[in-house]
Amino acid sequence: MEQNNISNKQIRKTSTFKLIFLTIITFGIYWYVWLWKLITDINKLYPAKGKCIHRYNWFCTLIGLDIISIILDLKGIQSKFIINIADICWMFINLILTLQILKNIERFVKEKFDIVINHNVFGWLFFGSFYVNYKINRLNKSIQKGIDEKILQLKLFN
Length: 158
Fold this sequence. Notes:
Layout: H1 2-7, H2 16-25, H3 29-45, H4 55-75, H5 85-113, H6 121-127, H7 129-137, H8 139-157
């Protein structure tokens, strides 16, 4: 029973190259599938109310903004402006969502292992969900590094 409980608290890892490649090939659809699964995994870490990420709200907003952007492009309205407001809103909301994901992972590692994980603000700002994927893929190394540092501190004080 305990083994099943442990396996339920794992976050799926996806190669960042695979994520980028499949996102391009599927015109962004794979990114939404990957994000849905990621949020499902993150929510398993925090099933309590208030710490879960509300997938339906985020997805409805992101997909709605994508649809608005496509409609603006198809009608030619987008060409009258330098930037597409729907795309800017999508990027902003995506950054907020990725920050929430990073903070939930950070909170889990802090509570479970008493280790603080540092994030690169520029990586998050410029690469968003790809940076989140990179951090998840390196999560075991970050935790192991934190454990090694704690062991070293214990040895120094003894």
